[in-house]
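Folding Task

Wanted — backbone structure
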Amino acid sequence: MSYGQDYRRKLVSANQAVKLIKSGDWIDYGSMNGQVVSLDRALAARKDELKDIKVWNLLNSYPARILEVDPDGEVFTWNSWHLSARDRQLMKSGRPVFYSSIRYSELPRYVREHIEALDVAMLQVAPMDKHGFFNFGPQGSHSRAVCDRAQVIIVEVNQNMPRCLGGYEEGVHISEVDYIVEGENPPLAQLPDTVFSQVDEKAARYIIEEMEDECCIQLGIGGMPNAVGKMIADSDLKDLGCHTEMLVDAYVDMFEAGRLTNAKKNIDPGKMVYTFAVGSQKLYDFIDNNPRCAMYPVNYTNDPAVASRNDKLVSINNAIEVDLYGQVCAESVGTRIISGTGGQLDFVLAGYQSKGGKSFVCLPSCNIDDQGNIDSRIVPVLKTGAIVTDPRSVAQYIVTEYGKFNLKGKTVWQRAEGLINLAHPQVRDELVKKAEEQGIWRKSNR
């Protein structure tokens, strides 16, 4: 049977496809731009026929109809490997959204070996190619592991999905697919243009000072990492490389400016290596069928043993708060989850392990409200219930708009002194007082 014949045989409507879902099933909904849309609406229409449906997702990108029709979670339970802004809004409105803690590089193994079950995988994909493959689009991540574990695979074809070259594990073959749905072809989710503050730019300059030609760059999510990318595009740095978790517009800017060639990388030379991409249409057009890019599963991109094989790996990530011991919280405000561990710990480790590499965690020194009140993000201790994303023994450089400080090899009193110098000047005396109370301040440090 030809691939075309097989395609027509498996082609069904979204309503037909979701009929196989039964009460008690675990379902993967696709990740990021691979999250299903037509199938979601069809499943929502079956709410009154079903019970106890558990859904997996990562970085919720589209409004999920099943959450709209079931706001109290009586039928559908939404479980996320990493929360998006949309997930945070759902949680704020009281919707039942649950986070599962991960170290991102290990996620494919969790799916293959540790999750309770996976009855049905539903994911948006690019149109089938002449060899019978449906490309996952710009969300390699753990998509292949999901297909390997699922009892049933349903693909929702989106004509707008770019075809992202690998690497490996970048698609699923029609022979493995049970049903094909031709979807509504929604546009891919777009990240708005990042507006950089003066604080972002000041902190970014401290990081740029530590970089040199032939560095390999990893940028995390957030304003400061992207400010670094934009500044690199305007710099004189040469022959930079890309080995990252998340590919964003800043990499395209660096490439178009001639800064990013990937020519000097130790592994995957000539390739921008990533596991997922989220940005503007410019980014999606750039990665479509582009042999300069290589999408891999996250257990390759984020494995510190792999990433650190690139010399001069520079990892740049955000944080919510850092305490005087050097513990980094990048995922919660107290017990309120904001995002997730993601791949930050992976790349903090990889940056330091790389020959000539460096790891930066950056954040504004404080938040200032409309009345001028200062809420320091350099704190004596993390808030009660805050998650330690990077242990004090792991983090290297901490950066704010007031400077940078290398934690490695420092005593507790040296750390307290260095980190207080990164805080807003108006809160430093109070931080010194707290450090004294905690027994981590030398009397001579005034």
Summary: The radius of gyration is 23 Å. The domain at 198-437 is CATH 3.40.1080.20 (Glutaconate Coenzyme A-transferase). The chain has two domains: 3-182, 198-437.
